[in-house]
Amino acid sequence: MKFLTLLLSATLFLVAPEAYSRDTAHNFSIQDALQSSDFKEKLDPSIRLYFGKQGHSKVKHSYGNVSTNKKTNAFNKKDEEACRWVLLSALISLQQRAKKDGGNAVINITSNYKKKKMSSTSEYECHAGNILAGVALTGDIVILAK
User: Fold this and answer.
1) Of 131, 45, 123, 116, residue with least CA distance to 84
2) How far apart are CA 146 and CA 82, in angstroms?
3) Where are the domains of the chain?
4) Hey, which end of the chain has fewer CB within 10 Å, N or C?
5) What is the pLDDT of residues 30-73, one digit of tens each?
6) What is the DSSP letter of 130?
7) Which residues contact 67 (CB under 8 A, 6 or more apart)?
8) What's the CA dihedral at 131, 68, 139, 50 to 10 degrees?
9) Which residue, 133, 139, 136, 97, is CA-closest to 115?
């Protein structure tokens, strides 16, 4: 009987990835995410963030384009909750890079999941599964005129 249980478990393990794999693409509101208390507490207000073709002051110096690809645990979370958490992680990463390089802003932030760009001033792309959620962003590190 123990062998039969082990054999059944092994069979389910081999078949299970199809049952558990999910990669649902979502477009969620940037503004809704930025208004949440976690974002207000954890993002650095000295490094400004501009999405898509959002207007900003004149670029005084550019440090180039950078990318971040973050994943977070999505187990037992609603997709939007997991996606907000991973967006926060990605934006913190961009801000840390800007600070390290000497920039005061990240402009032209676009979603770049699996190297497929989506530029928007109002939405970001997130992919959620049963276990992980991911956000990939690119942006230009710059010094903006005050």
Assistant:
1) 123
2) 35
3) 23-144
4) N
5) 999 999 998 999 999 999 999 999 999 999 999 999 999 999 99
6) S
7) 112, 136, 137, 138
8) 50
9) 136
Rounded to 10 degrees, the C-alpha dihedral 113/117/121/127 comes to -20
Q: Using one digit for the tens of pLDDT, what is the confidence trace for 84-125? A: 999 999 999 999 999 999 999 999 999 999 889 999 999 999
What string of H, E and C letters represents the secondary structure of 89-103? Answer: HHHHHHHHHHHHHCC
User: For residue 26, what pLDDT band results from cuts at 50, 70 and 90?
Assistant: very high
Give the predicted TM-score (pTM) of the model.
Answer: 0.85
Structure tokens at 108: 């032209």
Confirm if 83 and 36 have CB atoms less than 8 A apart: no
Query: Does the pLDDT at position 3 exceed 80?
Result: no
Q: Which two tokens stand for residue 72?
A: 């977070």
| Residue 128, pLDDT above cutoff 80 | yes
For residue 11 the two structure tokens come to: 């069979």
For residue 100, give Cα distances in angstroms to 27, 70, 87, 130.
30, 19, 20, 34
